[in-house]
Give the backbone structure.
Amino acid sequence: TLHTLNLDGNNIGAEGAAQIAKSLYTNTTLHTLYLYDNNIGTEGAIYIAKSLYINTTLHTLYLESNNIDTD
């Protein structure tokens, strides 16, 4: 069973973040997700955030260096 997934530095962008978010809707085992330096931007961060309304098993999420607007 996968508990930690590290995808740091893969430049997945907003589209990749959308696909990860889609999988988070149904995932029940992942506890930690590293997405550092993937250029997901604000759009990708929103996709991930929306999936967290449903996903209750992810406890730790790393999103540093992703060009996410803080305004």
User: Anything to note?
Assistant: The mean pLDDT is 97. The beta strands are 4-6, 32-34, 60-62.
